[in-house]
Design a protein that fits this description.
Layout lengths: L2 E7 L10 H15 L3 E7 L4 H9 L6 E5 H6 L1 H7 L4 E6 L11 H13 L2 E4 L2 H9 L5 E3 L18 E5 L8 H9 L8 E5 L6 H13 L6 E3 L5 H10 L2 E4 L8 H7 L5 E4 L4 H4 L5 E4 L4 H13 L1 H14 L6 H12 L5
Parallel strand pairs: 1-2, 1-3, 3-4, 4-5, 5-6, 7-8, 7-10, 8-9, 10-11, 11-12
Helix pairs in contact: 1-14, 2-4, 4-5, 7-8, 7-12
């Protein structure tokens, strides 16, 4: 039986720590086990260098360790040391230097870890291109999977807007609130911001203040982290997913929305164009408040546009690639096969 030690952030199964990376890691863990791998999990806190070394020390010489990029980047020294005797494969969920105002130490840490790794798994072709341009030679792409779910019922007027993701500058919720402020005279819309508010608490509070100042506070709901069932209920009532990110390696919420036949209004940045179905999405320049407001205005004011995008989103459900494909590519990468 093939064996790997999978080093992931603490709380990968914690419902209060919902993130795209955690969801991805859980699918990989369960999928590899189903495919016959023995997966030895090691949960460590980001930055706990000693714990990373302890986890990798359990891997025999020549064995394989799959390391979440969030852990690898902040424990680059441990990765560099252990990669001399262990085949380290890094699962990179993000490109750190694509983030606005990225910390120089975090950028350096990611590149050091990636250069030390035997292989890197990227979650999009865009991310892989960034890594390759930075000199990383062995990069495999394993995009997140998706699955068709019950089609969202939505509302007749298309005014139920949803934005899913941690409240943080790179997710661009401030751009969304500013865009909504331009639509204050349009009746019938409501926007739900579903995501953790405690990761960047100052940013989250500034968003609340921004919505109050713009006169849209009663129409913008900060729903916080949701359970799977809670998020499913929100998806079911939603008409359109808004993803105003400034930086995004892929966009798993987009895949989840398309799986429910929900169209997308999103930034044309990073891996988002790979995640969307072009016939079911409106893409705008990242950080452009006016462009996002105009796109949402068009969505809400044009029933024919809404019908076309909705029909395309429903059709896109059948074209989603499942998690089995993702896991197959990762399994091949761990075995040093060509995916």
């Amino acid at each position: 039986m093939a064996t790997t030690t999978f080093v992931v952030p603490t709380g990968v199964d914690d419902p209060a720590r919902v993130s795209g990376g955690n969801v991805y890691d859980r699918h990989v863990r369960d999928g590899l086990a189903h495919a016959g791998w023995e997966v030895r999990m090691a949960e460590v806190a980001p930055g706990a260098d000693r714990d990373v070394r302890r986890a990798l020390a359990t891997v025999p010489d020549g064995g394989v360790a799959l390391v979440d990029g969030l852990i690898a980047g902040v424990s680059a020294s441990a990765i560099e040391d252990e990669a001399r005797r262990v085949r380290v494969v890094i699962l990179a969920h993000m490109v750190v230097d694509a983030f606005p105002g990225a910390d120089a130490a975090a950028v350096d840490g990611q590149w050091r870890a990636l250069r030390a790794a035997h292989r890197v798994i990227a979650v999009s072709e865009w991310a892989a291109a960034q890594f390759t341009a930075g000199g990383i030679r062995d990069v495999v792409v394993a995009t997140p999977g998706g699955a068709p779910a019950e089609v969202a019922t939505g509302t007749p007027g298309g005014g139920e807007l949803l934005c899913v993701g941690v409240l943080a500058p790179h997710k661009g919720q401030d751009v969304l609130v500013d865009a909504l402020a331009r639509l204050v005279d349009i009746e019938g819309w409501r926007c739900t911001l579903a995501g953790a508010t405690d990761v960047e608490p100052d940013f989250a509070e500034a968003l609340r203040a921004r919505s109050r100042a713009a006169g849209v506070a009663e129409r913008v709901e900060f729903s916080g982290v949701q359970s799977a069932a809670g998020l499913e209920r929100i998806y079911r009532r939603s008409d359109v997913l808004v993803a105003p990110s400034r930086a995004e390696a892929y966009g798993m919420a987009i895949t989840e929305a398309l799986g429910r036949g929900i169209p997308v209004v999103a930034s044309r940045t990073g891996g988002i164009p790979e995640a969307v179905d072009p016939d079911a999405a409106i893409l705008v320049r990242p950080g452009d408040v006016r462009a996002l407001a105009d796109a949402l205005d068009r969505w809400m004011s044009d029933p024919a546009l809404r019908r076309g995008l909705k029909d395309a989103a429903v059709r896109a459900r059948s074209r989603l690639r499942g998690w089995r494909d993702t896991v197959t590519r990762i399994s091949s990468a761990l075995r040093e096969e060509e995916p």
